[in-house]
DNA sequence: ACAAATTTAGACAGGCTTGTCCAATTCGTC
DNA sequence: GACGAATTGGACAAGCCTGTCTAAATTTGT
């Protein structure tokens, strides 16, 4: 409690705490209202600072926006790679392990505040800031997908999967695992824990149906648990 | 050529032609600039009419926006169901037929002007107009997915596929077929014909790997053609 | 406790946008 | 060719937003 960086309570916050408070509020407002619709006064109010402080810290609206995107990108990438560290490289139960991994991925990187905000900003303003989002693309999906592909290649090498192209498999894994959440994402909603689990379960099953080593000679897929 | 409804050339256009011209231009500008950033003067200029004409036809900015979304929704749904009519109910070569269907779907419904615009408007402004997009959701994805699920159920019944839950299969089919186009979509870009084909080919292969009837007892998947 | 740095509230100019009004012009139709 | 409807261009008020400036209050470091 040295610096008193408690949530948003009354006691005054430090210089740096205000900076992040402003960036956080700005992320929220930019997402809700769009870049053009975002109002600096509203951001300041939501951050609990005066308008002048916003300008002192970030110069102008555009610089603030760039700071927001960079901040979100950085945190999201950190989250993604942290989650990758939990990939089941030596699975005991491949299906269960992959489902758990997919759920973690969704919960910690895609459905959380940062993930939703960053996605929306990219979709809404990506075309207006080509170089900014090119940067995101290289550091985010670029690295992310290769890293995931490498994990799958390893699983295949170890005999757990039968994969043609690991890059394709990685992209399809992510697509499958989120297949049932698309509409919720589109409208900016947050899926429930149960929806995430169901989508991941169904997705991993299909993934393993296509890429898994057939071990059980019986019927390959019982009725899906989660309708 | 009765009414001279040629593209955007000099000759004057009819009353109705101007209405659609305004809606089209508005769709373009709303997508590019966002609702708040869209400027009526710019829309008028892009439509080749005066600002007053925009107001005469549509009342105010918000009504114009609603008209745009309804228009796009209607046209997209029409395109989707027209494309569904070409679903391979009696496939001769299941893989090739599904790939061709997926490519048609992408080209005519998802990657075309209307599809891209509608998607972006939903993502950017969906939260601001809950009832408008709820309507889209019911008439669009709601019907779309059941219709596609029904087609897959039929294929399964006819012995071409081995499916647990047709609704899940339908969603996963769409997810797989677009798996490699996600980032392009996110940034508002238009994938090339080749990218669409590659994504569809890889997606259908995986789909059949999971849901297809195993006929060739040999290795189930050669190296993917399109890397 | 004191000095420096930061924050605040408010006023302010400048610019942009929406939506209205109107007179002059053009269009479609008979 | 003439009439009514639609369109145009421009002026206009009202409101909102950004970004700057100031003087007073507050916080921080020492």
TrEMBL record, chains A, B:
Q: Which UniProt keywords apply?
A: DNA-binding
**Pfam families reported in the protein's UniProt record:** TetR_C_7, TetR_N
Q: Where is the HTH tetR-type domain?
A: 16-76
Q: Which domain of life is it from?
A: Bacteria
Any keyword DNA-binding?
yes
Report the DNA-binding ranges: 39-58
* SUPFAM superfamilies associated with the record: Homeodomain-like (SSF46689), Tetracyclin repressor-like, C-terminal domain (SSF48498)
Write down what this protein is called. Answer: TetR/AcrR family transcriptional regulator
């Amino acid at each position: 409690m040295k610096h008193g960086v408690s949530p948003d309570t009354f006691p005054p916050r430090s210089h740096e705490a205000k900076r992040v408070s402003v960036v956080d509020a700005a992320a929220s407002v930019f997402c809700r209202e769009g870049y053009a619709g975002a109002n600096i006064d509203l951001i300041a109010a939501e951050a609990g600072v005066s308008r002048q402080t916003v300008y002192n810290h970030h110069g102008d609206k555009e610089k603030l926006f760039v700071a927001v995107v960079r901040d979100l990108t950085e945190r999201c990438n950190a989250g993604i790679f942290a989650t990758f560290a939990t990939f089941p490289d030596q699975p005991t139960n491949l299906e269960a392990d992959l489902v758990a991994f997919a759920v973690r991925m969704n919960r910690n990187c895609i459905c959380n505040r940062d993930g939703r905000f960053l996605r929306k900003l990219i979709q809404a303003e990506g075309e207006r800031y080509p170089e900014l989002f090119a940067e995101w693309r290289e550091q985010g999906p670029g690295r992310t997908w290769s890293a995931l592909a490498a994990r799958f290649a390893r699983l295949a090498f170890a005999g757990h999967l039968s994969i043609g192209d690991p890059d394709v498999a990685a992209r399809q894994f992510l697509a499958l695992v989120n297949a049932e959440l698309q509409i919720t994402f589109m409208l900016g909603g947050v899926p429930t824990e149960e929806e995430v689990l169901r989508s991941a379960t169904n997705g991993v099953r299909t993934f393993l149906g296509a890429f898994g080593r057939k071990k059980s000679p019986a019927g390959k897929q019982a009725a899906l648990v989660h309708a």
